[in-house]
Amino acid sequence: MARYTGAVCRQCRREGQKLFLKGEKCHTVKCPVLTRSKAPGQHGDGRKKVSEYGIQLRAKQKAKRFYGVLEKQFRKYFEQAVKKQEGITGENLLRILESRMDNVVYRLGLASSRPEARQLVTHNHFTLNGHKANIPSQLLKEGDVIALKEGSRDSAKFKMILEQNGSRPIPQWLELDQNTLTAKVVRMPERDEIDLEVEEHLIVELYSK
User: What is the pLDDT of residue 1?
Assistant: First the structure.
């Protein structure tokens, strides 16, 4: 599956905010968004008037980078959001992105970043409803049960992850049993529970042209 392999901190600098792509580093003073606030590139600190299209494009790019999704798959999610009978298209799109397996693992505190969650899922550390689940883009639904495999629970890697993320709050739309490291999708998230600073209606306007 295609994925971005460049320097992820450049993506945060380009969007002018933290996208939390580097785990623990994002919470320290070493975060490049703090130390090198201008956008990457030779003309990163230049001031240019941004068109309406440019504003809409930035909204889309920010959402794609936040969740680690490339254009083809992002467009597919948008088309799914449009077809939903209920809800607002932009909010439906964010709910679909939130329901990705790698994002849910990150939200549960079982990974320090979404890229790390993607890697851990790919490496067969989790099960979904009792079955192998190694596809990061798999979309979860209400009632699904995610669990860390028994053989992974005592690994030094996960002990470190759980220690680092112990104070991170878990969204109310998810439930996690800390003893068994088994979680459940209680419901789909509301818009105010999704901490992405983007005006999703701009994405809808961009794709509707």
Answer: 47
Note every long-range contact of 15-24, with CB atoms under 8 Å and residues 24 or more positions apart, other chains counting.
15/58, 15/61, 15/62, 15/65, 17/62, 17/197, 19/62, 19/65, 19/66, 20/113, 20/114, 21/65, 21/68, 21/113, 21/114, 21/115, 22/113, 23/111, 23/112, 23/113, 23/116, 23/164, 24/112, 24/164
How many residues comprise the chain? 209
Q: Does pLDDT of 27 surpass 60?
A: no
In DSSP terms, 127 is beta-bridged to 132, 147
Is 147 in contact with 180 (CB distance < 8 Å)? Answer: yes
Token pair listed for 78: 């948008």
Q: Is the pTM of this model over 0.85?
A: no
- 20: region left, alpha or beta (phi > 0 left; psi from -120 to 50 alpha): left
